[in-house]
Amino acid sequence: xxxxxxxxxxxxxxTRVFRPNVFVNITKYVDEKIETMKFYAGETGEFPFPRSxxxxxxxxxxxxxxxxxxxxxxxxxxxxxxx
Length: 83
Fold this sequence. Notes:
Blueprint: E1 22-25, H1 30-37, H2 53-67, E2 72-75
Antiparallel strand pairs: 1-2
């Protein structure tokens, strides 16, 4: 599962909490991510809106600090299949 600001905490199972256990270094791509989000003007807003530029950068920094990167995206591996 991937983390979606504001959507992640609005889940159907009240006891289900997003617990990231996979982190991807996005340090080189944070600015590009922010620029790409501007294409979704209806899904973004000014801070303190959950999908504001400030919040997205803060979340990337938080997840980076949890994983040893400057910036990261968090995922929760719930199913893995290997051959």
